[in-house]
Amino acid sequence: MTEANGHATSASLLSVSGLTAGYGDVQILWGIDLDVPKGEIVSIVGPNGSGKTTLLLAISGMVRTRTGRIVFDGEDIGGRSADRIVGRGVIHVPEGRRLFPTLSVKDNLLLGAYSRTDSAADIARDLDVVYSIFPILAERANQGATTLSGGQQQMCAIGRGIMARPKLLLIDELSLGLAPRAVELLAESLIKINKQGISILLVEQDVMTAFEIASRGYVVESGRVRLSGATTDLIQDPSMRTAYMGL
Question: Taking a C-beta distance cutoff of 8 angstroms, is the pair 89, 60 a contact?
Fold first, then answer.
């Protein structure tokens, strides 16, 4: 494990360095350094209001960065528009899911492919992939998306992200407000998605869930990375066990 500004040694798909960002006169992020190695799941944990969501919004182009670099797949995407970042393969599953209430499950999923230029057959194949990961969505394809349970809505939001063919999936608060069994199923699904070759950067309040599925973790407090390292090491860190695990 490394303190604060440690970096992964593997080839990085995403590398954030010296990142600052905020809203108006309020600065939220203070020199964030973070790496997501290709093919891995990386988690970000920390208390409410620590800047985790702002960090994801900055990466996906929804919040303007002030200083620092965001390099994705060899290209500096800092300051790029959100649609261009989507086009590069960074897909953001926001907190609260934000499904379209007047549309069916299937139509919500298909909206994830709106910017794709490949064939209808390719899109249909990816829809089948989503249904194989989340069978309940196939069963309820014609049901209104927001009539699903909370866990199923989260599945739909993640499935919509997969339909965009991401290289990197940003997921904000996987388990928020969900029953333990739903969280367990979602965690298992992220492992399946990762095995499809999609890297994942996960913001999650449930530290044990986050660290069980991620290979590497970052602890963000007050807009700064306080600890980083292999999740197996972070779980054993005394300060982590006291502050976040109640041990």
Answer: no
